[in-house]
Amino acid sequence: MDNLKIKMKEKIGYASGDLASNLIYQTISIYLLFFYTNVFGLSAAQAGVMFLVVRFIDAINDPIIGTLVDKTNTRFGRFRPYLLYGAAPFAVLAFLCFTTPNFSETGKLIYAYVTYVGLSITYTCINVPYGALTSAITDDNQEVVSLTSVRMFFANLGGVIVSYFVPVLSGYFSKSFGLSGGWQITMGILGIAGAILLLFCFSSTKERVKSVNQDHKIKFSDLFEQFKTNRPLVVLSIFFVLIFGINSINSSIGIYYVTYNVGRPDLVQWYTVLGSLPAFICIPLIPKINKKIGKKALLNISLAITVIGTLSLLIIPTDMVGLILISRVITAIGSLTAGAFMWALIPETIEYGEYVTGKRLSGLIYAIIGFFFKCGMALGGAVPGIILGNFGYVANQAQSSHALTGILITATIVPAILMVLALIDINFYNLDDKKYKEIAANLKERAELNIEGKNL
């Protein structure tokens, strides 16, 4: 594409898709466990198990959708049609997930499974092609980093909106419509906004990059070939599980930590918003930092900062609210930087996969990544739910010292262990900038030869 510069208007249009997804899925990540245990009426253990079951379903569903996306060919392109047709169902299912029907205990559990599974499948149908759209907009590495940075800026804007306004709106509407009605109306507003943003993303973007050979047949078995030959993809997949696991656990346990350990439920929205707010400083700097110190150093430093911020809660007294909020900011600076930059590595794995197999499997690779990051997000519901259940957590009452210990462990020790594993994992990523440029040049040469061959 001769280093085509993508206009900021298109970058913002593309980024609006992640803002849409985060308005809904950040709410799921941060508040769904709390909603299920404190509003809907499930036990912490029931909710935790459900998060794991939904991810098992995703293990089957995601690669199928990824394969379907790679086979798609319409007048709107390969990826954009899913944004157009998925917007309305995504909004409706999000609304239903935060609806409390007047069912029996068993009926409620079944309802929760059906709506959450439905939302997860719909999310995959949108997020896999949305993510793959990056590699179709541009194949220039610096433009990919820039595009991803704008995307992550908007994604974290969604996080800030969710962190602050969801508690405010649900509390406001609860005064007139009851606790469950307050959550339902709040999610209805976010769902409508998300659908509109997805339609804007569809209309603002353009697919430019085509596969070297679009005649190859996409098969489900390509999934296993990628895991066998594409080492960067394997390393990045594990990294996604760990990073999303860390962020999701920190988000979902935060509301419990502030409410019960700190004893300040009035600070929940501020604690959660501080988990996203540093993004507006960190993310715009990522392209420059990456250019100066390289991807591995950037990720290693970011994760080390996250470890320091997380473990500091072990020694900060719970009555020192100022230090607790500073700790939250430090943790967020590290985790947001690592979490934003890792998305820029996915197009590299697509190019590498095409280099070694001859197939450009954008949809399938994003489905693989999507499955792993949803597994990480599931940890945010499953791990806290299971630990809290085993430590004797009981909703809507003062907690025992044993339960408070369980909350503290989940907020500190568990994510710290995952961060150490992420540090180890990312240092096995063997695709540096020099190697990537060689691969990109090789693919460009193949494309030119392929065009010449068809013209003969």
UniProtKB/TrEMBL annotation:
According to its UniProt record, where is this protein located? Cell membrane
Q: Where are the transmembrane segments?
A: 12-34, 82-104, 110-133, 153-173, 185-202, 233-256, 268-286, 298-316, 322-343, 364-387, 407-429
- Give a yes or no for keyword Acetylation in this entry: no
The record's keywords, sorted A to Z, are: Cell membrane, Membrane, Symport, Transmembrane, Transmembrane helix, Transport
Q: Which InterPro entries match?
A: MFS_2, MFS_dom, MFS_trans_sf, Na/Gal_symport, Na/Gal_symport_CS
Q: How does it sit in the membrane?
A: Multi-pass membrane protein
Please provide an example of a Pfam family that matches this protein in its UniProt record: MFS_2
PROSITE patterns, alphabetized: MFS, NA_GALACTOSIDE_SYMP
Any idea where the Major facilitator superfamily (MFS) profile domain is? 1-434
Name the chain's protein: MFS transporter
Q: From what organism does this protein derive?
A: Clostridium cibarium
